[in-house]
Amino acid sequence: MSKHSTESDVAFIQALAELLNTNALTELSVKREYGEDDSLEVRVVKQANIVTTSVAASAPVTVAAPAAAHAAAAPVAMEDPAQHPGAVTSPMVGTAYLSAEPGAAAFVTVGATVSEGQTLMIIEAMKTMNHIPAPRAGVVKRILVADGNPVEYGAPLMIVE
């Protein structure tokens, strides 16, 4: 992290975020050197297909489903997977991997029975592979991340009931 806490660093980061959006990029990583012992490393990640809603206590949220060419739109109840009692959330920011290596079988699949402590996936953070264990025994109902996609701290990864 830079010893410089200046407006130019903030402007630089804002420019990177704008560059990310205008060029349809999903991730951008830059290191800015100020001197021998002073630098700024910035990683800007854009998460696609994430829908965040804030709702008053227990009020249902409905959205119109995309209408087919000649079909009427039907309301669909949106649920926040992070609020599900069986949600397994990310303990860190990183990249999620569903298998130990490319081409290998996934640690778990939808419908698989898992035991407490069993590896569900790996999250790579700072070149370290962190195994994510099942917090409880149960059945994998949903996998909410795709292999190789970035995840944020607290993001729901799977539903295990």
UniProtKB/TrEMBL annotation:
Keyword flag Lipid metabolism: yes
InterPro entries on file: AcCoA_biotinCC, Biotin_BS, Biotin_Carboxyl_Carrier/Decarb, Biotin_lipoyl, Single_hybrid_motif
Domain Lipoyl-binding residue range list: 85-161
Any one GO MF annotation of this record: acetyl-CoA carboxylase activity
GO cellular component: acetyl-CoA carboxylase complex
Presence of the UniProt keyword Lipid biosynthesis in the record: yes
A Pfam family: Biotin_lipoyl
NCBIfam families from the UniProt entry: BCCP
Protein name as it appears in the record: Biotin carboxyl carrier protein of acetyl-CoA carboxylase
Organism of provenance: Fertoeibacter niger
Taxonomic classification: Bacteria, Pseudomonadati, Pseudomonadota, Alphaproteobacteria, Rhodobacterales
Gene field: accB
